Amino acid sequence: MNLSSRLIYLLRGLAPYMILGLLVAAVSNITLFSYMQNNIYQTKYFDKHWIRRVQDLTWLGPYFRISSMIGNTPVILLITVPMMRHLYARNNFHTSMTFAILLSSSFIVSFTLKHMFNRERPVNDGFGEHNLTTSFPSGHSIAVPFIFFLVQWFLIKKYSKKALLLVPVLLWQTFFTVISRVYLSTHYPTDIVGGLLASACFLSVFYLGLKRNKEFFENEKYE
After folding, report:
1. Where would you find the membrane-spanning parts of this chain (predicted)?
2. Which of 88, 90, 129, 199 is the most exposed place for a label (fewest CB within 10 A)?
3. pLDDT tens digits, residue range 14-44?
4. What is the DSSP letter of 187?
């Protein structure tokens, strides 16, 4: 079987879970956004409270600014493309292509959901940066869990289950990366919640798809 046929076969196995994951992510965010619209006072209180709490952490400002860069597209590609090329070179074709599919899915989920809601960004008070996209959900809060899911998968592939010891580190950095968006006044805290909810829903469904299609990966050993 040539490479294009193998890729088509892989897509046929994973595509239903990609579509279902996107639908579940969309429904979760529609439900959350509807709640926010119906409880405007509580939503504003929640956002203002956590914006104040996070932006009081001025001593973490440099760390927040560096952490925020992790969710930028060039940095995402800088992290993930070498992993995909490395896996492909090690005869892990299906794993490498699944990385590419999952990376593309993160952009699709973010783009689709942002255009569903069109929430305006917070008023920039000098902390933040210029943004052209809408606010809800946070694209960083969608992308970063995808990235660290791929990083963890890659490390397990290379170093076996010993790599699970790094999970707390990845979760720590995920947390600081997403809340950095609040510190920089680029997102409301509720945008962060929406993004994390969307990524959790999609990744849960996609992981089920990986388990159901494990025949693609079980013979791919890291050599």
Report:
1. 14-36, 63-84, 96-117, 137-156, 163-186, 192-210
2. 129
3. 888 889 999 999 999 999 999 999 999 999 9
4. S
Cα gap 30→28, rounded to integer Å: 6
Q: What pLDDT digit, counting tens, does each position of 152-211 carry?
A: 878 777 777 777 777 888 889 889 999 999 998 888 999 999 999 999 999 999 888 888
Q: Which two tokens stand for residue 181?
A: 């968006």
Secondary structure (3-state) at 184: coil
151 exposure class (CB count in 10 Å sphere: 0-12, 13-18, 19+) = middle
Phi, psi for 98 (deg, rounded to 5)? -65, -35
Q: State the burial class of residue 201 (Cβ atoms within 10 Å of its Cβ: 0-12, 13-18, 19+).
A: buried
**Any long-range contacts for 193-196 (C-beta under 8 Å, 24+ apart)?**
193/32, 193/137, 193/141, 194/29, 194/32, 194/33, 194/113, 194/136, 194/137, 194/138, 194/141, 195/110, 195/137, 195/138, 195/139, 195/140, 195/141, 195/142, 196/141, 196/145
Max CA pair span of the chain: 59
Provide the token pair at 84: 């995909």
For residue 119, pLDDT beyond 70: yes
